[in-house]
Design a protein that fits this description.
Helix content: 10-25%
Largest sheet: 4 strands, antiparallel
Number of strands: 4
Radius of gyration: 12 Å
Strand order of the largest sheet: 1-2-3-4
Distance between the termini: 38 Å
Structural class: alpha+beta
Oligomer: single chain
Strand content: 35-45%
Number of helices: 1
Order of helices and strands: EEEEH
Amino acid sequence: FNAEPAEPEEKGDIFPARTWTNSEGKPLIAAITEINGDQVTFKLKNGRKVAYDISKLSEEDQKLIKEKKGE
């Protein structure tokens, strides 16, 4: 039995598509394709890429990204 993930992970994504939460508690479903200084590049479901300030994410999500960056 081989369970397929809901969103196939693309090569090059730093984080596969998941629900991120901003500091106001609003959810955002996206993959992260790039971490560049204080910003990440989110890839939305429609394929659009959007730069986003890490500081605008929830503390938990900021911590996850900083761990990935090796900080």
